[in-house]
């Protein structure tokens, strides 16, 4: 009977997970449709920006144009879907959380959207121009004529912008896990070497194959990790203070019972 109950509970969990995934997929599809509506204005903005000046972009296949529109629509949909996805994840795990943990973790959801936008702005206005300037200067020194397809230009752009934007969520993830008492600043400091190695590896993998792009992405990621450790310490100290207050109240109530 117990085994059957556990199996039913597992089935219910899988059913709940499927429902949350369907919600996320539905919002992503709606965001994709909306993304196609804004794809052309976004494309015009990106191609008329200062970073794109001096480049004559070419289409080398019939699918290059629609492919770029699909990438822009996908990025737009991701921006819309990301906070909703985190909220659905919270809804899925919240029944297993204590009321205090449920309240503490819910407040992080709105910041998912904000941090992604900050990462998007930083990667596009800071990292991307520097990487583009470096690669163009090397091409010029080699005496080569820059003739790029629109697919290559936007692949280079999205290859830098998207990973950096997503990795800007790192402080929020660390704070979320600290709020659940899975991580703490002491553990994060102990695993700093491993974390640095992983972040450097990510920077090398997600960026174009040149040292300057790796370096420009690597440094912000390492800084983000240190910021995450600091924020984790802030959450951890609040947890310790709350635990101390509860323990003090428990001791005081016990003393009152004994004296009574």
UniProtKB/TrEMBL annotation:
The keyword Transmembrane applies. InterPro entries: Sec-indep_translocase_CS, TatC. It is found in: Cell membrane; Membrane. Signal peptide: none annotated. GO terms for molecular function: proton motive force dependent protein transmembrane transporter activity. Keywords: Cell membrane, Membrane, Protein transport, Translocation, Transmembrane, Transmembrane helix, Transport. GO terms for cellular component: TAT protein transport complex. Its main location: membrane. GO terms for biological process: intracellular protein transmembrane transport; protein transport by the Tat complex. The chain crosses the membrane at residues 21-46, 66-90, 111-134, 154-182, 194-212, 218-236. Belongs to the TatC family. Forms a complex with TatA. Part of the twin-arginine translocation (Tat) system that transports large folded proteins containing a characteristic twin-arginine motif in their signal peptide across membranes. This is Sec-independent protein translocase protein TatC. The gene is tatC.
């Amino acid at each position: 009977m117990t085994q059957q109950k556990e199996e039913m509970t597992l089935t219910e969990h899988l059913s709940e997970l499927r429902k949350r995934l369907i919600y996320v997929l539905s919002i992503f599809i709606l965001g994709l449709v909306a993304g196609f509506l804004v794809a052309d204005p976004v494309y015009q903005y990106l191609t008329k920006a200062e970073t794109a000046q001096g480049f004559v972009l070419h289409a080398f296949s019939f699918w290059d144009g629609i492919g770029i529109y699909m990438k822009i629509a996908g990025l737009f949909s991701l921006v819309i879907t990301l906070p909703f996805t985190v909220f659905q994840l919270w809804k899925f795990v919240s029944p297993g959380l204590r009321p205090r943990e449920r309240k503490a973790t819910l407040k992080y959801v709105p910041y998912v959207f904000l941090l992604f936008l900050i990462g998007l702005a930083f990667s596009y206005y800071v990292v991307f121009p520097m990487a583009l300037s470096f690669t163009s200067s090397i091409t010029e020194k080699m005496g080569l004529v820059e003739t790029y397809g629109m697919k290559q230009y936007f692949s280079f752009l999205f290859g830098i912008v998207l990973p950096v934007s997503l990795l800007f969520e790192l402080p929020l993830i660390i704070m979320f896990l600290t709020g659940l008492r899975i991580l703490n600043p002491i553990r994060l400091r102990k695993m700093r070497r491993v974390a640095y190695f992983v972040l450097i590896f990510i920077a090398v993998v997600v960026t174009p194959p040149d040292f300057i792009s790796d370096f420009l992405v690597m440094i912000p990621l390492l800084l983000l990790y240190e910021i995450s450790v600091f924020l984790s310490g802030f959450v951890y100290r609040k947890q310790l203070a709350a635990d101390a207050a509860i323990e003090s109240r428990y001791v005081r109530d016990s003393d009152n019972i004994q004296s009574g």
